[in-house]
Amino acid sequence: MHINVAVGILIDSNKKILLAQRPKSRSWSGWWEFPGGKLEKNESTREALSRELKEEVGIDVVNCEKWVTRNYSYEEHNVTLYFFKITKWNGKLTPKEGQKLLWINPSEVNKDTILPPNIFILNALSLPTQYGITNISETPKEIFLNQLLNQLEQGLKMIQIREKNLPLEELKKTTLEIIRICKSFSAKVILNSSIELANDVNANGVHLNSIELRKFNKKPKNMIVSASCHSEDDVQIAQDKGIDFVVLSPVNKTNSHPKIVPLGWSKFLSITSKFDIPIYALGGMKKSDIDNALDSGAIGIASQRDIWSN
């Protein structure tokens, strides 16, 4: 049997999220979850979301954004969870089913008390849908910086500086310049491969390649750590080591690695469904691929070329 579920992540003006504690009358009583419920016959996910939140917490959804879709398999049934971010609603939040309601900062949630499928959401909430990767090796720096500014003005919130051909001093200078530009937009900057340089320039984080990932054993304090993955084994290692998020590639064929066989969306989905670590789709990604990525269990796309040309 296959069950489809619409789930609402209510986010208030302080970036807190709403959790509901399952009442004693239901299975998994006492555990915390996001409000929502099963789709009825011929009901869309958006219709189910509105109905369930009205029935469970007494509100009318005004503004919502369809976010990631996650698939889980159990002995007796398979479940597809359709997550929506909700930022505006009408009505007073009321526990219609006798459940406890709690507004809480995602970083303060005790993951041992929340239903397992929701752990992924806690890990992913602070990450944006689009992740830009620099491409100065193919674009003159001044042109790239204008492209970067354009994307920041359109809402880009995280980039990775990946310039392996730049001499160290030039890389440091370029990184500081990009950090200065991004700071005005509260955009995170991740530096590829060098934890030492990331610390030196006060970058938000560091990105490891798959070889560095396997050697990695100590996570720096107050720094985002991400990694490149190319297989299910890579993702397992990243999750076991507490990496914050990964990029999984290549999903499609790429100009830079034309001989590598791409994963394709079906294989990509089979991998994302097994893990709670946030995963970006990488490899030939365009903005038009965002919906495919979200439907395949990713939190969004990472792009090194297309993102800068739009």
Structure characterization notes:
It is built from nine helices and 15 strands. It is an alpha/beta fold and 310 residues long. The protein folds into two domains: 2-117, Alpha-Beta Complex (Nucleoside Triphosphate Pyrophosphohydrolase), CATH 3.90.79; 130-309, TIM Barrel (Alpha-Beta Barrel). The strands form three sheets. Strands 8-9-10-11-12-13-14-15 form an eight-stranded parallel beta barrel. α7 (232-240) links the parallel β12 (224-229) and β13 (245-248). The radius of gyration is 20 Å and the shape is globular. The protein starts with a strand and ends in a 7-residue tail after the last strand. The mean pLDDT is 93.
Briefly, what is this?
The chain has 310 residues and is of the alpha/beta class. The chain is built from 9 helices and 15 strands. The protein has helices spanning 45-57, 119-124, 141-153, 168-183, 195-200, 210-215, 232-240, 264-272, 290-295, and strands spanning 2-10, 17-21, 32-33, 36-38, 60-73, 78-90, 100-104, 130-133, 158-161, 188-192, 205-208, 224-229, 245-248, 279-282, 300-303.
Structure keywords:
310 residues; alpha/beta; Nucleoside Triphosphate Pyrophosphohydrolase; TIM Barrel; 2 domains; eight-stranded parallel beta barrel; four-stranded mixed beta sheet; 9 helices; 15 strands; 28% strand; globular
Rg, rounded, reads 20 Å
* Low-confidence spans: none
Q: Kindly estimate the percentage of residues that lie in beta strands according to DSSP.
A: 25-35%
- Supply the number of helical segments: 9
Give the end-to-end Cα distance, rounded to a whole number of Å: 43 Å
CATH topology of the largest domain: TIM Barrel
Helix-strand topology string:
EEEEHEEEHEHEHEHEHEHEHEHE
CATH architecture of the largest domain: Alpha-Beta Barrel
The proportion of residues forming helix, as a percent range, comes to 25-40%
Whole-number mean pLDDT: 93
Based on Cα principal axes, name the global outline: globular
Q: How many strands, which pairing sense, and closed or not: the largest β-sheet?
A: 8 strands, parallel, barrel
Counting DSSP E segments of at least 2 residues, the number of strands comes to 15
Helices and strands: which structural class? alpha/beta
Number of domains: 2
User: How would you describe the oligomerization state of the chains in this entry?
Assistant: single chain
Strand order of the largest sheet: 8-9-10-11-12-13-14-15
- Within CATH, the superfamily of the largest domain carries the name Aldolase class I
The top level CATH class name of the largest domain: Alpha Beta
